[in-house]
Amino acid sequence: MKPKFFVFANQKGGVGKTTLAAHMAIHAHQMGYRVLLVDLDQQGSATYLCTGDGEYHQTDENTALDLWYPDRQIPIQQSPVYGFDFLQASSALDVVDDDLEAAILALRRLETLETDQGRYHLVVIDCPPAPGVRQVAPLMVADKHIVPVTPDALGTQGLLSIIQTNLESILPVNPQLEFRVLINRLKANSAKNHATAKELVEKIPEWIIPHLLFDREDVRTALRLGKPYWELCRDDGQKDAWYQAFDFLLANVPDDDDDPNLRETDEPKDAEAALASQELAAASEGG
Ligand SMILES: Nc1ncnc2c1ncn2[C@@H]1O[C@H](COP(=O)(O)OP(=O)(O)OP(=O)(O)O)[C@@H](O)[C@H]1O
Ligand SMILES: [Mg+2]
Fold first, then answer.
1. 80 Cα to the center of ligand 2, angstroms
2. Are 242 and 233 in contact (CB under 8 A)?
3. Whole-model pTM?
4. CATH numbers and ranges of domains, the chain
5. What kind and span of H or E run contains 138?
6. 17 lines ligand 1 (CB under 6 A)
7. To 10 degrees, what angle do helices 17-30 and 236-250 make?
8. Lower CB density within 10 Å: C or N end of the chain?
9. How far is the CA of 8 from the centre of ligand 2 (A)?
């Protein structure tokens, strides 16, 4: 089975792409999925979360760039902080920005990538805030486009142009793409923020993830401690909202139990073993 690709992309900066991509990877990993987080942003924020090292992406060796070279191995690492696998950013990632086809081929390598346990169930891609190849190519291979937005005038304005681009340029090529909007950094004491969030929920109910994520200092604290926010959060409402939002996104991602290929090979083997032990038991009773 091919992994599902979840792409966190919005050309607006600071809306929470990296924070939410990391939470997606943490949740999937905690649920037992094989998950790979790919950092395509040359700022390396996801790489920083995975390693705790702000300089880690200042290299062009053993990074996501290697995807673009079919003769190079894909340099997967395991996050010492969270335990899931990641493919780190390089500060030189912008050298690939002139060739969309090459970027699509590069990302498609992840579809057949084998780990010791089998293919990944989920590939989470954190995109740079600039529109361009490293935002469009991931959407061309994506199953879900997750757009974090802040519930304010600028956030909603940007959303319209994203929807337009998806309809005009991405969906004709990748009709399987599901579009999901995740409201983040809602300021709890801002009536305007609440009104904008409500308006979004009413206007595009089919696309909105029905859990509102508030702007809370503890989100930053949690990530500094290497934990998802729901493990630190003291507000039950928000704790649930964060957990449920990522659970909602993960809902239809198949795991090994859903893999018909694994089931077909597993069941006869188990059945044979069961039969063999029954035969043995019968033989020893008879003897
Ligand atoms: N719900 C939240 N509450 C509080 N802080 C948040 C929340 N979500 C994100 N942040 C903080 O906001 C800042 C920007 O978040 P993040 O880096 O995830 O955004 P981004 O969209 O990936 O930014 P960029 O466009 O630069 O890649 C970070 O300091 C992050 O810790
Ligand atoms: Mg980011």
1. 20
2. yes
3. 0.91
4. 4-285 (3.40.50.300)
5. helix 133-141
6. yes
7. 80
8. C
9. 9
